[in-house]
Amino acid sequence: MNMNERFEAYIASDAKIEPKDWMPDAYRKTLIRQISQHAHSEVVGMLPEGNWVTRAPSLLRKSILLAKVQDEAGHGLYLYSACETLGVSRDDLIADLHSGKAKYSSIFNYPATSWADMGTVGWLVDGAAIMNQVPLCKTSYGPYARAMVRVCKEESFHQRQGFQILLALCNGTEAQKAMAQESLNRWWWPALMMFGPRDEDSQHTEESMRWRIKRFTNDELRQKFVDMTVPQAELLGLTIPDPDLKWNEERGHYDFGEIDWNEFHHVIRGNGPCNRERLEARRKAHEEGAWVRDAASAYAKKHARTDASSTHAA
Amino acid sequence: MANSAHLNYVLRLADDAVIQGQRLSEWCGHGPILEEDIALTNLALDCIGQARALYALAAERAGAGQTEDDFAYFRDEEAFRNHLMVELPKGDFGFTLMRQFLFGAFNWLRMEHLSGQTQDPELAAIATKAVKELRYHVEHARDWVVRLGDGTEESHRRVAESLAALWPYTGELFAPDSIDEWALQAGIGPDLNALHSRWTAIVEAALTEATLDLPSSTGWMQSGGKAGRHSEHLGYLLAEMQSLARKHPGVTW
Amino acid sequence: MSERSTWPLWEVFVRSRQGLSHRHVGSLHAPDAEMAIQNARDVYTRRQEGVSIWVLPASSITASSPADKDCLFEPANDKVYRHPTFYDLPDEVKNM
């Protein structure tokens, strides 16, 4: 057996790969692409919700939203750290994001224009993300799997708080309920797009499945998401904006309409309603923070401790 | 118990907390590095938590069936009694951290006093929790003031400018008005003169370490926030914060 | 300071409660040890996960090489007599 074959056999036995283990270049590259894309999504994902933190309609909602957006920063951080164990620096990853070379989840290129979006994003976007993420807790790369365990544990309140926002709106005034429906109308299709292209059009699926970096196909997860979400929408009394949506007794699943793949590809290519401003916001934060990072580095250099740490580890 | 000076005293504490929290939360998603984004959000969360507890106490005492949100969302700017310093726009990272240090040190000492007084046990309980949070705020902000002051030429210049811009707003922290006098007499509030010297010692030590000069305390000081006379900035802050809640009065969120 | 100044990477260990040892929870970037502690507090103990934190520069860790896995760890495999289950004792012997 050569190194490659040994690696494939090892992975097939469901064993974990750790940072210093030998791995094929393609495996490393795929991981870096996937983990960094995931990290970027968390960080860019802070923006549409951060947009409502200062306008949250109650102090409790403000606190919850802040805590949630903060978690996303944390998740980005865990994932960047996992990625760094593969020998790439966070600076390089961020540079790729800012140059437009790296991708992030397209969902965040849609605007959050109403408060109800804070509910819908939690319910659908985090719901879809959880479907993608839970299987990743068992992914083959140890640091990624461990980061995902942490992410999933923390994520569990995100979807619930979103649903609760919508529940309050749907039990509220006509205007509140209309706000919720309008929001669902805008987010439903983009949420379905989050699972990526159809299986037959996905270039990475097969290899990623074999390497256990990915554990379900795009279409499998999308179906599971629709099946799970429809009864929840009914409970809220909201109408899913898809005339083709109906239960298929034979399949034991909901049938649903065709995604507008043209829009999907356009948003990925940078033509979504917010692509430009999301990246600009990230770049601006990074550039405006440069002097701060430089200052702390300079201070640390000047005051580098020559003595051992002040308190002994015990 | 619904003595109006007493109620105003509590509301003033709450207003300081909510406005700070609002300004800090503007950083969410825009910090200089992820680690600091998370840290600033923690500070914001603490402030909003303090505001909620204080507004809830005020609501209970006002006895008119208000909620914490009625105070935060349905009062106009002249009803807010926060210090001017906290409503100033967030500025750059150095400005925010310098403010957090200058105001935080004051607030920490104030809360420490309130946690120890026995005339208002409910307020003491809130203050006891706040003191722990504020101690961390001051420590974190102090560490940054020192790093920025003693970092690069650019950071020194920037943070020195922030210090100069903020300094005229420190006077209001220690200039007692009738409500402060009442609180002192009632055995609830601190003696702001005594607080001032402790504060000055803390600030001076940090600024020295940061290689920054302590500005003169004899210059002109801005004031008015405690009396409801605000800067132009508060109106915008409240317009943003209150817009949605006011569009739908009386609903549940 | 025009070159990108990168804050070093720190490994974070958290004691979740008194009586347990510190456990590796992840890493972060910080300019120095003091800030690393504060950042670790904010990043890794937001949900009451800890009562004590260690941070150490990632660069100061010396790790065993995966290539040495066999020679380092396999020799222990046949030292079964180190495990209590190796010793078959009559059932009458209680509490041992």
Note down, in words, how this protein is organized.
The complex is a heterotrimer of chains A (314), B (253) and C (96). Chain A is built from 11 helices and 2 strands; from the N terminus they run αααααααααββαα. Chain A has 314 residues and is an all-alpha fold. Chain A is globular and about 60 Å long. By secondary structure, chain C is an alpha+beta fold. Chain C has 2 helices and 3 strands, in the order ββαβα. At the B-C interface, α2 and α6 of B face α1 of C.
Rg from Cα of chain C: 21 Å
Main sheet record of chain A: 2 strands, antiparallel
Tally the beta strands of chain A.
2
Task: Give the ordered list of helices and strands of chain A.
Answer: HHHHHHHHHEEHH
Helix content of chain C: 10-25%
Low-confidence stretches of chain C: none
Largest interface, with counts of residues having CB < 8 Å to the other chain, equals: A-B, 51 and 50 residues
Cα gyration radius of chain A (Å): 21 Å
Helix content of chain A: 55-70%
Q: Note the overall shape of chain C.
A: elongated
Record field, number of beta strands of chain C: 3
Average pLDDT figure of chain A: 93
The backbone outline of chain A, from C-alpha atoms, is: globular
Distance between the termini of chain C: 66 Å
Structural class of chain A: mainly alpha
Strand content of chain A: under 5%
Largest sheet of chain C: 3 strands, antiparallel
Low-confidence stretches of chain A: none
User: How many DSSP H or I helices of chain C?
Assistant: 2
Q: Going across the major beta sheet of chain A, what is the strand order?
A: 1-2
